[in-house]
Amino acid sequence: MRAVILDGLVLGLAFGLLGVGMTLVYGLGGVLNLAYGQIVVLAAIVASLQMEDGRATLLAALLGIGAAAGVAVLLDLTLMRPVYRQHGEERTLLGLLLTLGAAFVIGGLLAWRYPTGTLYINILGDPISIIGVPMARGSIWASVIALAVAAVLLLFFGMTTFGRGVRSVIQDETGARLVGINPSFVRTVIFALSGALAGIVAITQGMSGPLGVNAGFELTTFALIVTVVGGLGSVAGAFLAGVLLGVVNSMSAHYVGQYYTTIILLGAAALTILIRPRGLLGR
Amino acid sequence: MERTSSLRRLGLAFLPIVATAAILVVLPPIWFGDSPYTTSLAVQALVFAAYGIGFNLIFGSTNQLFLCVGALAGIGGYGAGILANETSLPMVAGVVVGTVAAAIVGGLLSWIAVRRSLGVIFTGIVTLVFSLAFANLLLGQRDLTGSETGLVVTGVPAKLGDDQVGGYYLFAGLLVVFLVVFRLLQLSHLGWAFRALRDDEVAAELAGVNVSRYRIYAATIGSAMIGLTGALLAYSAGFISPATYSFDRVDVRVLVLVAFGGLGTLLGPVLGATVFAFLDERLTESLELREVLYGVFVIAIFLFFRRGVVNAVVDLWKRLGGRRREPAVQTSGD
Amino acid sequence: MLEVSGLAAGYLGERVIDDIHVEVGTGEAVCIVGSNGAGKTTLFRTIAGLLPAMAGRVVLDGKDLTRRPTHRISRVGIAYVPAERHLFPAMTVKTNLVLGAYPRRPDSATLQLVYDLFPRLHERQRQHAGTLSGGEQQMLAVGRALMAKPQLLMLDEPTTGLAPKVAQSAFQALEGLKSDGMTLLIAEQQVPLALSVADRGYVLENGRIRLSGTAEELDQNPEVRRAYLGVA
Questions:
Q1: In total, how many domains does chain A have?
Q2: Residue A19 sits in which domain range?
């Protein structure tokens, strides 16, 4: 039982980061980035290619994360421009459709060039015992990294001037303009950040197990579920929802089975929309 | 005088359907010859055109982003298939049950969206969630559905197989019926309500249009169409699996081809399905490249070409000063 | 300091304001009066860059600000307090004020100034802006604008939703600002209040400037008196 919960927490931390990346972009611009999962896969493929070329794991990981951030910025500067020119539901719909298109382009290209592309970062060493449960070193590394990133984000959004600026754009974009904040610039930076987060998820997932080139759609789905349950636009909510759903996933997979686990997670998202649309911590 | 002019208008309204039907009828002898391969391709195109008309009714006409076309078709298909295998009921019964089940689910989803005032994003997510959950349900219920290995559907008249001309005419007939229904809806009070709804929901509501009710009607009828197509597909293909009705295979394609043809137009789905059938044929080597192409198409269409081909053609015709072919009954896209 | 010439703006291709000429000198308090729908808010939004100008120019100390985006105009020295205020509801009063100084670091002297001007804000500094009363939100909006140490303070209908007494004290605060040397541009429906603080004024009607003059001139003007003060 403890093992199941710990596994769930490890997964949950990854879910959490995934959700944060997606919810940030939504909170700032009203866009659900359906290409998010493919960006994770992109980072994974870049990192694994670098490792095959013989580069040190750390460098490969950083390059992967950088690539993801870069592609995200590219997406923002190109496809998102016409989306931001729209408002309200028009913007949402166009954002959904264009990022869906981008998902197919990125996913398709990656699957075509690297059909067997997989990222696996094998952390050598014996399992370490955490509260009596032997945990693979890879999972421990993944969790530590995720927690560290979460802490950095917390500091960033709570304490720095730019972080406050980001929050202000989420809460009242016109108000942000009035105090001299450029929402466009903030959005681009945050898009890059979400890309970097996607890259970090790729690396940490690669430490827990092989991450294949076809995982994109599934990852986007998980990110969507976590974002919705946490509350669209709420960073803390996404993280919390991620951890919770990770544990739920782990427990349900153990006791009920894989297919029904997915249905349960999907059901959580649907239930949230129907019963409490603002999610766990949304406004 | 008035009688003839409105009869004339009616005639003009149905002219495109008659023309399409005529083309469909003569196509096999002229073109397919006896090639089962070409026939099955044509059937595929017809199936997607039929899906498209249903989707057009739901999204094109009333702006409800239903990302569960595949699942609705799957309800029709698996409903009919399971019934065929588990009971001794005839084919018709299976098809009817499948269609009705899909209609009920679609109507229910719309009702939920209306009751909870779900906007585009949430409707999309809920229907997507339903779509994925349904796929997982199919995979989970091994005994009933055969999971990934699929279901063989028994009791199919051989003539209606999807590589046979009989199958072709079955779906061609279905398509024509759908076109007629769509046109009748456009001409009716419902059609007027749909157009008002699309242009400005608030104004429509104020003008007395019960927006919620019409949305549910559209969703129910559209879902019935999709379910019926899915059920017939199960019979004519003789074999179905979750992949037949998956999100990747069905929903994405339907979205792209309907948007390409023209959301809300009568012949848009037909045009889109035809074009994409040709494209698919050319690109048989790589599924992944096909995916990339779809992505590019989605982006291109929604950035530059939102009104679709049919509307572009109509606009061009008007610009060239031609007589407006169908005055009062015409629907423009956006 | 501020010169608006030939300005026209509107929505969906339609001009709501046209041929607007307004001048505000350094240290002056100028008011724009007009009834609902006259175009005051449209004018202010255009000056602040929230609405693109269709014609004409907005010049601040020789710098052409026409069509600049709002965040650039804020940084150049125009602080705009709209009627809707646009505060950050889930942030504390203090954070709202601190953000007013963006991108600079908040100047503690200026913060103290704001607290001196609006002691209520100091009391409620840890409260979320969304929970404040109307009058307090107005104070916060003005305070936030002041944190940027603006050259020009624009206020759109500052008395919206305020009880008469509160409205009076709001204008007293504005008097105080003016005597400290702040340049003010105020849009108001309540003419007597506006004229009490202003040096000069413009009357906006149906999107055009109908009259202009010193506060005394406008106050004496029989048309103004009849239309807005209800006096024959």
A1: 1
A2: 2-275
